[in-house]
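Data availability (excerpt). The following record was deposited with the supplementary files.
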Amino acid sequence: MEQRWPERLWIVRHGESAGNVARDAAHAAGLDMIDIAMRDVDVDLSPLGERQAKSLGRWFAALPADERPEVIFASPYLRARRTAEAVGEAGGFDPDHEYTVDERLREKEFGVLDRLTTKGIRDRFPEQAEFRRILGKFYHRPPGGESWCDTILRLRSALDTIGLRHGRRRVLVVGHQVVVLCMRYLIENMTEEEILAVDREGDVANCSVTEYRFDPGKGKDGGLALERYNFTVPLEEAGTPVTSEPDAKVAAP
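Predicted structure:
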């Protein structure tokens, strides 16, 4: 039977963004709103985020040429695209490697809660804070936004595309914290409680690596086996600070 999984799959969260920095500042000051002047899709990397992406690229460059990514998928958000481009430039990838910006990999939509801090949600939308408490973060959908389940539905489609078009190849996906977690949920066939337990262990670090390898003995037709999760050695070896702040629009009461 034809192999429908990539030979290797890396899922990477974007480097630290200006939104991450603004979110930290808003929480430290006890503010309701995160001070960002542009659309979230247009938020760029911070200078540290650029360093993180280049450090990750140099880690890939140290691999043999036939073990580096052949195909790159990126969220359309600027911080993810900049990360993918910086990793590719520093990583010694084949200049003809396939690069696709895929809107299904975008950040989870937070609707009316966008750019609010935890305090801001409680102050301005106490009913949403209560709905989230009752439903849990996996199922709660704020007005105009998405639940984790909504995000998983579009990622299921993206993962099918990767499998159908890039079986036996080496694929790098650059996205966001929730994208990394929801891809794990799909690939590993997790339950709600299992993925939320992973989430509770801590945030996904900026430019950390989650890596899978194809295992022909996994299941009837083979499958992807997790090699490492939230792997930050590429940054640590380069002396680049590791950051793990949630994105600017990720606010959880």
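Summary of structural features: Confidence is low (pLDDT under 50) at residues 249-253.
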